[in-house]
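Researcher: Here's the sequence for the chain we discussed earlier.
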Amino acid sequence: MLSNLRQLFRYRALIQTLVVRELKARYRGSVLGYFWSFVNPLLLLLVFSFVFTYIMPRGEDVAVEPYAVFMFCGLLPWTWFSSSLMDAANALIINGNLIKKVMFPAEILPVVSVVSNMIHFLFGLPILLAFLFYYAIPLEPSGLLWFPLVLLVQFILTLGLAMVLSALTVHFRDIKDLLANLLTLWMFASPIIYPMAFVPPAVKPLMDLNPFAHLAISYQEIFFYRGPFGHWKWLLALAFAGTLLFLLGYWLFDRLRDSFAEEV
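Model: Thanks. This is the structure I predict for it:
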């Protein structure tokens, strides 16, 4: 496993090629093309703002203003997280023709899913920054210094889960349908549309076990809340847990590698 893991870095050129292919395929035939990478986050922000401001006005209940910006701080990374897992679950099945080639490294397919969706997340950041500027929300330099680490932690955690899902879905196709429902539940169980302070004390210990809760809070502290970055201990613990999950996910992927060609 360790030898295969070391070779993963050597495939960076192939990963880059497949990521570019994935980005081109996503917008092939569209009029706006890559401009959708900016339009989609903007539309997502406007839709959720309308729903939770006028149809289900939760903004005043949770006492965060402007509520749309608060929500987008968690919603944007969640879109990266959930889309990566959904794409990774189908990655080996969709690319069965590549899997059947003896020399093709199958483990780069979930990596491509995570990286391509991370690029869309980065494209959405200017939309968030524009709304921060519009509402005159200052960015704390000390908080921005933590942003690369938060990004790295989410990448490692997401990649670990992507490895597990891509390997297991080849053998258990029901995972794709279960995952869609699980992600919906996971989203509402994370402090994205409500702040952590809104969680009842009896539920908070369970929320602390939710890895994405700590990612959402980290992004909120960087971009929305004014003050020092106070969630760093949880973030470092999540970095350790995410690394273990990635190693476990790669080990599972490596164990099932020989069965992929037969199953797809």
